[in-house]
Structure formats: structure tokens, C-alpha cells
């Protein structure tokens, strides 16, 4: 049952990322510095499977560790998972992203977009984990 919960939560986090970055595609491309295709409307590596595979595996790994923390902490209610996931994303993941970007002289807006995904992606993962 634990593996199924982790897999479902990871997939939900990955799917949330697809929605997040579809909605924020234009501002993200503008501030990320990612090379664009000839039309200038999508990343040049859009058809490369590596970023998508990396993202999916990463979401499953995050879900697995979050489940471990939830079990150790006795987090098993939907509201607890939602709030705990939000806290993990906002107070653990996003500060690391902001630190990396600050030292890398990356735009603050990029840290906000990517940190937002980390925060709300972990929120989704936390909520889904408590459904099992």
C-alpha cells in the first residue's frame, strides 16, 4: 500500500508541475534563460525526454521521503498532509532553491516560479499521501 501511495503522490506532483509550468511558461522562459526553439515559443529541448524523466523520478523520490516523514510523524489526515506538504515545500525546498539562484545570479522571479512549484507540488504530494 505504501508503494502505491508514493507512486500516486509522485504522479500527482508531476502532473501538477505540468500544469504549473504550462500556465507560467512565458514568464518562466523569459527569466530562465533556457534556449528556445526557432519559433521562440518553447524550450529548444522540449522533445528531449530527459527533463521529463528526471522530473517524474524526482517527484516520486520526494513523495517517498515525504511518506517516510509522515509515517514517523503520525501524519495521516488530509488536512495534516496538506499543511505539512505546504510547509516542506515553502520552508525546506524553496529556501534551497532561492539560495542556489541567489549565488548563481539568477533572477528572483525565477526563484519565485520554481519555489512556487516546489511549495504547491509538495502540498499536492502531501495531500495525496494521506488518501491511502
Topology:
Layout: H1 2-23, H2 25-32, H3 49-73, H4 78-103, H5 108-129
Helix pairs in contact: 1-3, 1-5, 3-5, 4-5
Summary?
With 132 residues, this protein is mostly helical. It contains five helices and no strands.
What is the percentage of strand-forming residues?
Answer: under 5%
Low-confidence stretches: none
Task: Tell me, rounded to a whole number, the average pLDDT.
Answer: 97
Tell me the count of domains: 1
Outline, from the CA principal axes?
globular
* Element-by-element helix/strand order: HHHHH
C-alpha end-to-end distance: 7 Å
The tally of helices reads 5
Over the alpha carbons, how many angstroms does the gyration radius reach? 16 Å
InterPro entries: DUF1761
Transmembrane segments: 49-70, 82-104, 110-131
Keywords: Membrane, Transmembrane, Transmembrane helix
Protein name: DUF1761 domain-containing protein
Could you list some keywords that capture this structure?
mainly alpha; DUF1761; 132 residues; transmembrane; 5 helices; DUF1761 domain-containing protein; transmembrane helix; single chain; globular; 78% helix
How would you portray this structure in words?
The chain has 132 residues and is mostly helical. It is 78% helix and 0% strand. Pfam families: DUF1761.
Amino acid at each position: 500500500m505504501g508503494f502505491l501511495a508514493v507512486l500516486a503522490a509522485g504522479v500527482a506532483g508531476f502532473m501538477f508541475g505540468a500544469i504549473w509550468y504550462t500556465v507560467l511558461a512565458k514568464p518562466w522562459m523569459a527569466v530562465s534563460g533556457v534556449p528556445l526553439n526557432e519559433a521562440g515559443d518553447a524550450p529548444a529541448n522540449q522533445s528531449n525526454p530527459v527533463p521529463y524523466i528526471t522530473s517524474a523520478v524526482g517527484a516520486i523520490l520526494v513523495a517517498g521521503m515525504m511518506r517516510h516523514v509522515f509515517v514517523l510523524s503520525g501524519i495521516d489526515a488530509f488536512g495534516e498532509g496538506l499543511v505539512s506538504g505546504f510547509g516542506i515545500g515553502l520552508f525546506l525546498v524553496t529556501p534551497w532553491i532561492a539560495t542556489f539562484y541567489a549565488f548563481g545570479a539568477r533572477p528572483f522571479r525565477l526563484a519565485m516560479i520554481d519555489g512556487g512549484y516546489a511549495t504547491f507540488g509538495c502540498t499536492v504530494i502531501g495531500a495525496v499521501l494521506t488518501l491511502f
